[in-house]
Design brief:
Elements lengths: L2 H15 L11 E7 L1 H11 L14 H13 L3 E9 L7 E10 L3 H13 L4 E4 L3 E5 L2
Antiparallel strand pairs: 1-2, 2-3, 3-5, 4-5
């Protein structure tokens, strides 16, 4: 893939995820959160070979994360994603997912979502009262 093709993909991914970015570029990275599946799916499809699907450190990998999201949705949670986009100023340009947000007002479902994250080895989690968020560093 040429640099021009990479840059065009990064621009299109930014357009897809723009409402979900937490801040401007910092160190060549833009983090996003609370992105719905349709936007994440469109960004992953656009990213093509720039999408990082492999497990890293103790992260279970993007495909396993999507599978877990399906389980949480089947249990009645609204699932949103967070991750980051590494831009063109670095050699490791990529789109990476790194966690989930499982929204539910049902405390039992949030506790169950927390336990699933712990079982999968999530580094951190937070219960915000209406959502449980877990992620890998």
């Amino acid at each position: 893939m040429t640099n021009n093709e990479k840059e065009a993909k990064v621009i299109r991914i930014q357009e897809i995820l723009e409402p979900y970015f937490d801040h401007a570029w910092s160190g060549g990275i833009r983090r996003f959160s609370s992105a719905p599946w349709d936007k994440v799916q469109a960004a992953l499809l656009e990213a093509g070979e720039l999408a990082d699907y492999a497990p890293w450190n103790n992260f279970i990998g993007t495909l396993a994360l999507i599978k877990e999201a399906g389980r949480l949705e089947a249990n009645g949670c609204e699932v949103l994603y967070h991750g980051y986009l590494v831009g063109m100023g670095r050699d490791d340009t990529r789109l990476t997912l790194e966690g989930l947000e499982a929204r539910s007002t049902d405390e039992y479902k949030r506790v169950e979502a927390s336990l699933r994250g712990a079982k999968l080895g999530a580094d951190e989690y937070e219960d915000r009262g209406d959502a449980v968020i877990w992620w890998w560093d």
